[in-house]
Amino acid sequence: MPAAGPAGLAWVVFIEATGQGHFTASPAATAWLLFAGPATVIPLALFAWAARRMPLSSMGFLQFLAPTIVFVIGALQGEALGSLRIASFAFIWVGAAVFALGAVLKVRRASDTAETIVAPEPGLLDDPAEDRMEALGENPPPVR
């Protein structure tokens, strides 16, 4: 149990003993409260698992999706949208677009650079041990 576990358990026992708790209110309430833990932990654990396997730049960009979805749902449901909210939303997405454009251009520049093959300087890849052996008058071992 984590460090806060015993304190939390003591608090639940105290609340239930004073009649202010909800665990013993009804079997349905108890079931819902017990289900709330796994219903919270499972999505968070899956998110953490997936986040470790994604590039941080992709993860950061995807973090814009949830507020955008909430914004669109609010607009469709008739939420009051003042000009300040719309302007702030637009600035956030312009920033995200600039970031995405910069990332795309960086990848393109990297791929252009990777396609350019530079020939090594003559003698650069030669084995220096062979040069020393030749200087001493010895024959290098044959390459297998």
Automatic annotation (TrEMBL):
It comes from Brevundimonas diminuta (Pseudomonas diminuta). The keyword Membrane applies. This is Putative chloramphenical resistance permease RarD. SUPFAM superfamilies: Multidrug resistance efflux transporter EmrE. InterPro entries: EmrE-like. It comes from the Bacteria. Keywords: Membrane, Transmembrane, Transmembrane helix. Residues 121-144 are annotated as: Disordered. Coiled coil: none annotated. The chain crosses the membrane at residues 29-49, 61-78, 84-105. Signal peptide: none annotated.
